[in-house]
Specification:
Elements: E1 25-27, E2 32-33, H1 36-45, H2 56-61, H3 71-86, E3 90-101, E4 110-122, E5 128-138, E6 144-155, H4 193-196, E7 210-218, H5 221-230, H6 236-239, H7 253-263, H8 265-268, E8 273-281, E9 291-303, E10 309-319, E11 339-350
Antiparallel strand pairs: 1-4, 2-4, 3-6, 3-8, 4-5, 5-6, 7-9, 8-11, 9-10, 10-11
């Protein structure tokens, strides 16, 4: 009788909660070279109109060599690399902190990602746990272009595996203005407000001011699927309708972030470059057919040491209903059902 060899699976089922350990460093696969085509696709998917990311000539007038790849496009590329190892089996992407854009990403740069596990906490149901990772995106020169912390609820595969020791990292509530990294050469002293689209400069915004961005964009199935494939995000809940009882595919949270950021042009056209991600929460899931609207609250302003360059801290909120600017949580502190995204970030703006 011949020995029967059982087939060995060569496919990757993804990581489960019990597969992670504190201090573990994961080098994510498949580096990605970004080109000007990345910008064209990004601007086709979102109504992105910030001048610094639209025009080489405008960027050069602001002291840069050319127009960089959009800040959030770079974020999506770095984020997408991490999905097979961090969130392929995720139930939810819960939040962000301590994010900083450290160098512009230029057409022709090759990006790769690595993540360190900095926190673990099993949930009381014993079926899921929260994994905290610090992710770094680097270019072909080994320079870090972006780093951030995120935490994800991940399924357990072996429900009998004992819970790990709980480690919840102590994260800053916001990036300090002194720690913001301003791109080399950036200079807003000759900033062209006419070409940028609005006359409002940093001094025109008041802390506590709420800006309703007015416009809305309905999310289409084909577009959010294209975006998710573009960023090589392989999370099952975005592609496979059988992952949910209702048969719906959840729209990638980054798609919501970019849509809300693009909508914020109306009222914040001069908030040109995102340089820090202080906090963020995907408050409620987004599905195809939802019309995304946005409003922003001014949280803080700061000076920088660059000519004409200031920093504005904004809360960007995406919602599924019009006329609700300024409404965020109920009396118990829970996000209202129409709130899709709550994002806290720093951007650079002319003074």
């Amino acid at each position: 009788m011949k020995d029967v060899t059982m087939p060995v699976s060569k496919t990757n089922p993804g990581w489960f909660f019990e597969d992670y350990s504190i201090g573990q460093v994961i080098e994510h696969a498949v580096p990605r070279t970004v080109t000007s085509g990345e910008r064209a696709l990004y601007h086709a998917l979102y109504p992105a109109r910030h001048a610094l990311y639209s025009s080489d000539a405008f960027a050069q007038s602001c002291g840069l060599a050319a127009s960089p790849i959009d800040d959030l496009a770079a974020f999506h590329v770095v984020f997408g690399k991490t999905v097979p190892d961090v969130s392929l089996n995720a139930r939810a992407n819960l939040g962000y902190a301590e994010g900083r854009w450290l160098k512009p990403v230029w057409p022709g740069d090759t990006l790769r990602s690595s993540s360190e596990v900095i926190g673990l906490k099993q949930n009381s149901n014993g079926k899921t746990g929260v994994v905290y990772v610090r992710t770094r995106g680097t270019n072909q020169h080994g320079e870090t272009v972006l780093d951030y912390v995120r935490w994800v609820m991940v399924k357990k595969n072996d429900l009998d595996r004992p819970a790990p020791e709980t480690v919840v990292p102590d994260l800053a509530t916001a990036v300090e203005p002194a720690d913001l990294v301003i791109p080399e050469g950036l200079d807003f002293s000759s900033y062209d407000f006419t070409l940028a689209g609005e006359p409002h400069r940093l001094g025109d915004y008041q802390i506590g001011e709420v800006i309703d961005h007015v416009d809305g964009v309905t999310v289409e199935e084909a577009e959010h699927m294209m975006a998710t494939r573009l960023w090589q995000n392989t999370s099952k809940v975005h592609f496979d309708g059988t992952q949910r009882e209702d048969g719906k595919r959840i729209v990638y949270g980054g798609h919501v972030i970019s849509m809300a950021r693009a909508l914020s042009f109306n009222g914040l056209a001069n908030a040109q470059m995102i340089v820090a991600l202080n906090a963020g929460a995907h408050a409620n899931p987004t599905f195809s057919g939802t019309t995304i609207r946005a409003w922003s609250e001014v949280l803080d302003t700061a000076e920088t040491d660059r000519p004409g360059v200031g920093a504005i801290r904004l809360r960007l909120v995406a919602t599924s209903e019009a006329g609700r600017a300024g409404e965020l949580k109920d009396e118990s502190g829970k996000y209202l059902p129409h709130v899709l995204l709550d994002l806290d970030y720093w951007a650079l703006m002319p003074v």
